Amino acid sequence: MRGTGIDYTTDVHVSQSSQDGLTEDELFELLSNRRRRHILHTLITETEQVDIGTLSQEIAAEEDELAFDEVSSSDRKRVYTALQQSHLPKMDNAGVLEFNRDRGTVEATPALEDVEIYMDVVRGRELPWSDYYIGLTAVIAVVLGGAALGLPPFSFLTMTAWVAFVIVALGVSSISHRYYARKNRLGIGSSPPGSTELEYDESASK
Fold first, then answer.
1. What's the rounded Cα separation, in Å, for the pair 118 and 138?
2. Sign of the Cα pseudo-torsion (67, 89, 45, 185, in order)
């Protein structure tokens, strides 16, 4: 399309940032829009390339709360145009998908495997796992140090008991981290995460 200022080449374009891995700002930017979240969710759950027309109809059905077959051609075209002119070029530039405008298809790239939504990267919601593990390490150091020096109240239990406590604490923490990471991964679930789950800015254009 002429006059849009967007370069629609069919060659795979991978930015330097995607080669080095997406930054947090780039990840947030991609996930700040519901339509892009839907695209990423679809690509993670699908093994083959996805047709843009089908993708557009799915998104229009979700936005209008209609069945897939009830979407009008005008609504489908409205979404199709936005995907083709804005969202897909942006995501292709980030390297998370390959956008083939001539064929009307999109396909996941290996970089998409790094796009996982963890609740601990959403600032302000809860304690990040990194901070949690730092705190847990400090507690373990105090407990084992106190037990080794025979200081109360750590001296009330044997060193074997405290070591067992540490092993259990690390095991429970690791299992919990794995559970929440898998639960909050973008591709898990029947539909892409909504704005209330992510707390991203929805002011970006649809």
1. 24
2. negative
